[in-house]
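Input record (one chain):
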Amino acid sequence: MTEGIHPVAPHHLPIYIPRPDGSDPLFTVVVISIVILCLLAGVLYFKLHSLPEHMGERANSTQLQLISILAILALFTHNNAFWVLALLIAAVRLPDYLTPLQAIAKSLEKIAANKPEVVISDSTAAAASDSVTGAPTAARVVENITEPVKAEKEPP
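The corresponding structure, as predicted from the sequence alone:
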């Protein structure tokens, strides 16, 4: 038998037809491209997933911790509401309430350190108390507190 090509058969076969040795170049190209596309999709997913954390890096540490927790919850639970909430928290700059309160506390400590201590004797406290209830009245306490302070400042 002669090994010639049939006269009706094409002399050049397209690339998607497997060769007689069993190699399939189209299958090889498709498999490699699908693996590369899956890796790129994974990288894109994780970059997109970490977007709230990158946006929240300029925020304070408490806000960044909250954003990180929500992003991790969204990653493991596949719940998009956590990711959207983390993105909203990262986009909005929360006001810093702690710094002004700390400044107020430090100022009050300085004021308290500069005031002299007032010593009230037992007779002063008894004179300042109300006759019916025995509780001190505000006017009498103020009068009795200021009098011993003046007495201490005057020389004997």
